[in-house]
Amino acid sequence: MPPVAEDSKPHSIEGGALRRLSVSQLRKFALCERAWFFAKVLRLPERPLKARDLGTAIHAQLDHYLRTGEDVLGPLAAAGKHLLPAPDLGITNCIAVRA
Question: I need a surface site. Which of 64, 68, 75, 93 has the fewest CB within 10 A?
Answer without folding.
Answer: 75
